[in-house]
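== Folding task for one protein ==

=== Format: two labelled lines per protein ===

==== Paired sequence and structure tokens ====
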Amino acid sequence: PGQVECTFSAQDALRAADGSPMDGVRSLMVDRTGRVWVSSSSGLFRSLGPVPFGANVAFERQRPPGTHSGEVFLKSIEDAQGRVWVAGDQGLARLSEGVWTRFTKDRDGLRSNFVAQLAEDKTDGSIVLGYRDALGVSRLSFTGGKPRLSHYTAANGLRSEKTLFLGFDALGRL
């Protein structure tokens, strides 16, 4: 993952290749191939190819399973294995080797489908997620290829069950 520098004037707007606007940009992420991912209130978008500095960029809409036309996407991250994880209001989505998988409250045990924040624990590769509502955080790991969720709240020592941002410091602390 890298950094991307963007400059916009009042006349500029992010648009998908089909011309549709990308309103309410929530986060930008550059994956290891140099593609830019845009999580927004009007959908999830990925650049058509790597983005060189200063170049014009064309984006295509991404539709993980279960996506509806009004889904808001809030955060995208890439893990150490190159998988892209996306937080949305219909659950957590993962793109791995070109295949999308959706994790939800009813099927997989998320506390809510309204996932807002994501961070990877580099020590074990698990994904920590926060919710839009005050529900604490959950850790998603895999045992034998099957998802396993652990939930943490104030009862486990969190100071608050509301999360605004997630990240790990240099010592691996959440």
Notes: The helical segments are 105-108. Residues 105-108 form the longest helix (4 residues).
